[in-house]
Amino acid sequence: xxxTDSPQSPPLTGPAPQRxxxxxxxxxxxRLVHPGLLLAGIVLVALNMRACLAxxxxxxxxxxxxxxxSATASGLIxxxxxxxxxxxxxxxxxxxRRHGVERVVLGAxxxxxxxxxxxxxxxxxxLYAGCVVIGVAISVLNVAMPSLIKREFPDRAAAMxxxxxxxxLVGATLAAAVSVPLERxxxxxxxxxxxxxxxxxxxxxxxxxPQLLRGRAGAAAGSPVAxxxxxxxxxxxVTAWQISVFMGISxxxxxxxVAWMPTILADHGMDRGTAGLVFAFSxxxxxxxxxxxxxxxxxxxxQRGLAVAMVTLNALGIAGLLxxxxxxxxxxxxxxxxxxxxxxxxxxxxxxxxxxxxxxAVAAQLSGMTQTVGYLVAASGxxxxxxxxxxxxxxxxxxxxMLLLCAVAAVAGxxxxxxxxxx
Length: 423
Fold this sequence. Notes:
Helix content is about 80%, strand content about 0%. It is mostly helical and about 425 residues long. The longest helix is centred in the C-terminal third of the chain and has 33 residues, at about 360-390.
């Protein structure tokens, strides 16, 4: 009698098990590419994009003493990453087209974690090499993230830009606030405190892993993730240059006042502790501006008035520092105006990228240009302000020059706010 397979024991390699396996894989893929995981990944990455820079400010004096650095060499600890954010930005659109934005973001986050660890090794060369790596990693993220947001949230790009820019500022605020407590809690000096931020980067990398599956799924469906996207000559676009000038001057004002605002207040008679509180308040208010302004921008066809309003608030705050920097109540008003303007200008500049770009590939190219120009301009601000202060013996000339730059930013922002799409 021939032996037959039992009906209760179907073959493991038949069509039904294969279909079930494919269905299980599809179900897992659907869970991993859930929009909630994408949002969490964006927030985790954004939290890292300013945290490792802001964490340094409270530690600069200790780093200087530990390594025997001069004041100028200590200033380079913050200047070098900003400079290399501009230098590394032009390379990112090519990386995105070749490897896909998901892989590029993951690689940049891992590079950021490596740069943070390199920066705390016990040599001066490692310190500055880490600063270079951090700057390059952040430059890649600066360009890649707006492209990703434009692709994944085409109808809510401005609102998601608000979430993204807010997360960046929240990360910076938290890092500046907890660096000294971390040093005391970990007991390993400034190296353990600054090295801790590599952990946050690794957490972001783990949180980003599901997006690699999203990228593969998009490529399989024909989505323009890494394929041959049309190249738009953004460097020849008047609108692109207007966005770049607006972002560059806005960033210059932010970095200049981050470097010198407490000193300006203290030089005009304010207690240093109070000056630090005023500065911290201004940074805190930036979070509100970075969240609210992109939401407003997304509801408008034209953002010209919004751009001029942000520049006007910046100018009023700077004028207050110029006219009455030591007046207690007025200093707090200046901090409020500057905080809203600086956070709002950051959010609006990033919103311009996603609103003016006709697609994710164009957003990557436009972001590469604007970030290059913006951060190269911004890197000069703190150095130029310090040099002018030293040459003139006061803060009148640097602040007056900032007011003139506000006028240029207003003209550029008015043009960037036109209802026009590139590509």
